[in-house]
Design goal:
six-stranded mixed beta sheet, Rossmann fold, binds guanosine-5'-diphosphate, single chain
């Protein structure tokens, strides 16, 4: 497998204040942001939104959130946005206002954007009706063919704009295409299992249970032989790519210091690999018997050239985001003296959403005053309290300056990398599930108590578990959390997010009885086994990613 770790494409929205940038942003990102917040309990930066249109995934950035000092002229704000967009975006949308018409600040932004390599779209916003649409024609004089009249607050014209925007994105990477293919296969596989046409293993052979309508609270039972066969089929595809690790965090937390500490004279740099982002360089280093790839080491080093303050912070967030999308594991550096800031939590939120491994490194530990034996534990407790959605991530205190525990950071990242690729046996998984659901049943939601039948690990990186259940849609979030904790107690999964997917399997009993009658004893015919193997392979590689159907409804 060749790795051309393409980052997720970025669409930047640029424009002077009040033209409707954030309205357009919200329209494009839709309800997704809110959903993610509730479900994953991650914090979200309003300025970045992960979305999908016509089956293309991309990140939208509202560069209008870049704070410049309020005393600065509007032109300054626009300049900062334009520069960020030119440096990092794959497509740029310049938003202007049909009501006010062309202003000097618009002209200024347009002039700056003329040098952009990325395609530029002009979205003439507030074209609420036909007569305003005529007003919009004025903006053709800026000279871009791709000029669209839209009304972000009503959604008018936004779909047409997005159709063209996704066509202008860089071609999908082989990984992205493979990911989609796996999703299709995993969907098909899950549908087959849900319909009872594929029997991954025996849930329960107890006929008497088949008609029981009452929930006896008993969890699933697993046929060991069947489970073993299933697991053999699921043997993970071998992948000898070395772990790819990204150091991310706000400016001045010590990323380049850490990099320098790690790349010190004694470390052999195997090669520098041009990354796929403009000017990104990855560094491959020897590490024990293996190698690791450090993502975007050039970005870490050169970020200093960009303006300081909150603008630099936004810039480095964007850069971090790209690095995260290309990495297996992110090491989030935080400043031990400042503690965990909202910006740190935002970045961590992306790591979780992208399903990447996470190590939290508290840097500048040398500068933390009055340390006692319990200081670190208190620190960790405090981080867990501030950002409970990160409780799966190991925390390590380091000093890039003195070199204290810097090696440990990479060791942990490699451990996390392995945990993220861990596959647990179906038999074991269901034993854990049985005891967990015996100990505590899913709570009744709207008068219905879900019943879990069985679970299987559908994929690794991140570990993804599909639970087949009755009333699958009613498995309460707190119970999902409970199951996640039981899985972590049993299997670890240190530092990696895990995903739980619940699938309805209402027809399990009737379907199975029919199957049983036909195949009496023989659990899988030759053909069935082949189909199962194919499905298993698809599932093994799948990355089940819940996509919000609601996004289409705009
Ligand atoms: P930003 O500063 O560029 O992010 O602009 P906002 O998204 O905050 O919008 C500025 C103002 O324009 C708000 O009062 C919006 O309600 C309004 N606005 C946004 N889109 C439209 C639109 O399509 N039509 C009209 N009439 N007003 C809009
Ligand atoms: P980056 O912007 O995240 O790459 O941060 P740098 O590596 O450039 O570090 C920012 C500042 O923090 C510099 O002045 C460093 O000397 C300082 N710094 C970095 N690591 C440490 C550390 O472990 N302890 C202390 N006391 N200062 C550090």
């Amino acid at each position: 497998m060749s790795r051309s770790r393409s980052p997720i494409p970025i669409v930047a929205i640029v424009g002077r204040p009040n033209v409707g940038k954030s309205t357009l942003f919200n329209r494009i990102v839709g309800e997704r942001t809110a959903i993610v917040e509730d479900r994953a309990r991650t914090t979200r930066d309003r300025l970045y939104g992960d979305t999908e249109w016509n089956a293309r995934r991309f990140v939208v950035v509202d560069t209008g959130g870049l704070e410049v000092s309020p005393d600065d002229p509007i032109e300054a704000a626009v300049q900062v946005q334009a520069r960020l967009a030119i440096a990092e975006a794959d497509v740029i949308i310049l938003v202007v206002d049909a009501i006010t018409g062309l202003t000097p600040a618009d002209q200024e932004a347009a002039d700056l954007l003329r040098v952009a390599k990325a395609p530029v779209f002009v979205a003439v916003n507030k074209a609420d009706n036909a007569s305003r649409e005529l007003d919009a024609a004025e903006f053709w004089q800026l000279g871009w063919d791709r000029t669209f009249a839209i009304a972000a607050s009503h959604g008018r014209g936004v779909a047409d704009l997005l159709d063209e925007v996704v066509l202008a994105l860089p071609p999908e990477s082989p990984q992205e295409l493979a990911r989609k293919q796996r999703e299709v296969e995993a969907e098909a596989f899950a549908a087959e299992v849900a319909a009872g046409r594929l029997e991954p293993f025996v849930v329960s052979d107890d006929e008497s249970d088949d008609d029981a309508e009452v929930d006896d609270g008993a969890g699933p039972e697993v046929d060991e032989v069947e489970a073993a066969r299933w697991d053999a089929m699921l043997a993970a595809a071998s992948d000898d790519e070395p772990p790819a690790i990204a150091f991310v965090g706000r400016p001045n937390v010590g990323k380049s210091s850490l990099l320098n500490a790690l790349l010190g004279e004694e470390r052999t740099i195997v090669s520098e690999i041009p990354g796929t982002t403009r000017d990104a360089i990855d560094t491959r280093i020897a590490w024990g018997r293996t190698e690791v790839v450090l993502i975007d080491t050039a970005g870490i080093r050169k970020r200093g050239k960009v303006a300081s303050g909150s603008t630099a912070e936004r810039y480095s967030t964007l850069r971090s985001l790209k690095a995260i999308s290309r990495a297996d594991v992110a090491v989030l550096l935080i400043d031990g003296v400042d503690g965990l800031t909202a910006q740190d939590a935002h970045i961590a939120g992306y790591v979780v959403e992208e399903g990447k491994g996470l190590v939290v490194a508290v840097n500048k530990w040398d500068a933390v005053e009055d340390k006692k034996g319990s200081t670190f534990d208190q620190y960790v407790q405090w981080i867990r309290h501030e950002a409970p959605f990160l409780d799966f991530a190991p925390v390590v205190s380091i000093s890039a300056r003195t070199g204290q525990r810097v090696q440990r950071v990479l060791e942990l990242a490699i451990d996390v990398w392995a945990e993220r690729r861990k596959r647990v046996s179906t038999g074991e998984l269901n034993r854990i599930l049985t005891s967990a659901s015996n100990r505590q049943q899913p709570p009744i939601v709207k008068g219905k108590r879900p019943k879990l039948f069985y679970a299987t690990q559908a994929s690794v990186a991140p570990p993804t578990f599909v639970f087949f259940a009755r009333e699958a849609g009613s498995v309460h979030f707190s119970y999902q959390r409970y199951l996640e904790n039981r899985l972590r107690d049993a299997f670890g999964f240190l530092g990696t997010p895990i995903r739980l997917v619940f699938r309805e399997r209402a027809g399990i009993r009737a379907e199975r009885r029919a199957t049983k009658g036909a195949a009496k004893g023989a659990k899988a015919t030759a053909k069935g086994a082949k189909a199962a193997a194919k499905g298993a392979k698809a599932a093994a590689k799948s990355r089940v990613r819940p996509t919000a159907a609601s996004k289409r409804g705009r």
